[in-house]
Fold:
Amino acid sequence: MITHLPILIVLPLMTMAFVVTLAGLVRPRTAFPLTILAVAASAAASVRSLMVVAGGGELRYALGGWQPPVGIEYVVDGVSAFVATVVSVVALLVLVGTRRMARREMGRRMGPFYGTVLMMLTGLLGIVVTGDLFNLFVFLEISSLATYGLIFMGGRQAMIASFRYLIVGTAAGALYMLGVGYLYFSTGTLNMADMASRLPAMIDSPMVLAGAALIFAGLGVKMALVPLHWWLPDSYNFAPSSVTTLIAPISTKVAAYAMLRMFLSVFPEGYLRDATPVATLLVALGLAGALLGGAAAMAQTDLRRILAYSSISQMGFIATGIGLASPLAATAALFHVMAHSVMKAALFLAASGVGYRTSQFNIDRMAGLARVMPLTMLAFTLGAISMVGVPPTAGFFSKLYLAQAGIELGLWPVAVVVLLSGLFTLAYMVRILERVYLRDLPGEIGETNYSGAVENTSATSVRKATDMPADTLVPTLILAFGTIVLGLLNVPIVTLMLGPGVGQ
Amino acid sequence: MNLFPGALPLLAIAIPMAATVPILVCGRRPNLRESWSLLASIATAGTVLAMLPGTLSGQIAESRLFELIPGVAIAFRADPAGMLFALLASGLWIPTTIYSIGYMRTLDEGRQTRYYAAFALSLSSALGVALAANLITFVLFYELLTLATYPLVTHHEDDTSVRAGRRYLIYTLSAGLALIAASAWLLSLGIDGTFVAGGFLQELSGRTGILWGLFLLMACGVGVKAAVMPLHSWLPSAMVAPTPVSALLHAVAVVKAGAFGFVRVMGFVFGPALLAEMGAAQGVAVFAAVTLMLGSIIALRMDRLKQRLAYSTISHLSYIVLGTAILAPAAWVGALLHMVAHGVTKITLFFCAGAIHANAHKDNVSQLDGIGRQMPYTMTAFALASLGMAGLPPFMMFASKWYLGSGAVAANMNPILAVYILSGILNAAYLFPIVFRAFAKPPVPDPDGHEIGEASPWMVAPLMVTGVLALALGVFPDLGFGFLELATQVAASVMEATP
Structure:
């Protein structure tokens, strides 16, 4: 059983993707439970493999019995088991939490919708567990194609956003593919471990350099690194909220994982930092993204758009952590992958709950919302506090470790930007929270209007809003309180799960 | 009595934190809710008091939780300095709770459930700051204190309080960032940041750049909450909060967390030896002395009573900061005693201001003609506290100022003595006229014909108690709480560690 764990993370999703699509065509109501079943199975396999590899050690699985380097190999070490657990558990909670939104938005298309969701998760988790560079490309494309389709379901504007993402994403995939090609022609292998053993001999080859640069560019787009980020806000904004809530917490994080994988297991240690500008670029663009994303978020009035720009900002931290290329920085980046995924899922779930109840996302029309949706807003507040990076939430520790890593390397600007960007986050979160908590509901006595003219219909829908039912609220609150629990428990996570994988 | 000495510091922090739950649950039954608040305040003060004998006799209670960062655990330690602050904050929480009941009900304020819950959480964080055994734990509760007091500052939910809240968050969270940066820096140097009397940074002796960097970060971090100019402007605007909040949090718990932060940074992080080597203490002394004088002068010009008291607070916090910067034992005793003296005295003044606001709806000094005849008990307490603030014997503030002054002389810093004396005169100048107006001038007849009488006993009793306490603590500085003994122990432990 344990030897098969790596494939068991992906297999249930891939199989069920077809089953759900077909079953959903006949009976749309079966799609949801089958999907949950598949994701739960995958999450169980991820958690189990995390328990096996925690503290050091790894699981290797040769697909179809073809031994590497010829065959495709799946490798689960502390890092990939950790990311797989984060992705699958967050996806599970989000899927439960968005059931009502999906039912409203998808109607009878439940089968295709959940089938595509499972396809996307197959791709994402495949990227995490694979130990093969070409196989990674395949999974990257699977997840991307599924994501385009999901965003596409959001109507006219979403189609344009999706099409734009498709063009950029395809180009990114091609760049990555080209990079892998260069490496393949230099080394004659596609297996990561095998390539890692062959690359040191040809470290001066311009082919390797070109390969590294192309892979960096391709994955940079996927992880929404500034200035390759512009596909993201529209996609998150116009996609159905059940889709945004699912892809925002996990998909960019998996691209970041793939980038980190190149540092950890493909290129020789220090190569990307010393021989190529890749690491420096990651740090510089990451810091720029942290600031620009935060600044852009401040200028928005649409809740989902604020959260989308905040994603760009938070991805900047992860990129910085990867680029610093020290064990502590990699730990910080991975911890932030988890922290951001959990808090962003809580925030987006709360936001889509607001959208479900009030049919709009304009923060100017959310005055007094905490009075009618107190628990939803509690979840949102906890997510926001974690995003700002207040101890003891998870968001605090990733920033602390990242700042510490920057100082250890003598890179002061890193520590300064990482800490100051918390103030940016504070600025755009306080704008929301002030309206939600400290302003009166529209039409109450002593009314104070932020936006001036509030349409009657939306005013009524805000006044009549209530918390979502328990089946939506519970996952949201689990994720929200999870930010605190994971923050308090960061030491075992950092030392047992991440430490051995990043070479600490 | 001390069956589980190791659990007491944790308990002192956990009780008020846990009390938020029954307070929130009983939101619809005000009497029950307030009973929980009162019960929590008494239990907390009792727990803190239970640790006192151990601390005085050197059997210091410690609690250690799990590791928060590899190598650094959440840890609490009831050392003399922490005990002093914890006793002050938890002790004054009891009268403040009683006062809150009177104040909030007289004014029929809304959102009282949130108010009492946030109050309990603030107290819990203040105690966490007091009893923190290392820098990381300190920062954790320092930040929690900011968040817990935000709903109290914005309690009225109008434009002014929203703006004040925004400013409050930006100032205090930036300060928190400075402390976090310092912590990250220490971690990267492999220092875990456990507070040690006399400082733990001796190994960095000679590395001036690092020391100064750390010092600036930490001084700015605690300087915001201690309202050292130019980092003070959040405090006057935070006076939009209900008066009990201004009384306990913005005269005692929050701002004293900043002043107490200076005690920790100067005495337990850097230590007198390093500070003397760096020459950093003089820098702090200059800022503190300027703040001390300017605060008093601005207070003179303020007509709004709460604003006047706020600037007076700014000035008095710098008494403490300045005391820690004079690296002499007597000045340290004075600084720590001044924390207590100012806490007890200033809370009385704020209580009086709140009683006047609630009952007479007057907020400006110029409106207070003859109020002493209408509210005799309140204004008697106000007069007592004013005499105390001016530093007249036998009030407690006389004792603390005496120690501060003699510390300045001992350290050969006579200009500072002059600053203390001059500021004492200014204290009298901005408070005595209020007393004079209140008692000597005839009352102005109310335009609406309302008869102004004494405030509710729920308000008058606490303010009388704290007013008398300001006097009693001057006559008997220990009064069963061992304030002088604690202060002496702190000063001795910090100064003796000097090689």
Notes: The interface with chain A takes residues 66-70, 139-140, 143-144, 147, 151, 154, 157-159, 161-162, 165-166, 169-170, 173-174, 176-177, 180-181, 183-185, 187-188 of chain B (CB under 8 Å). The longest helix of chain B spans residues 243-278.
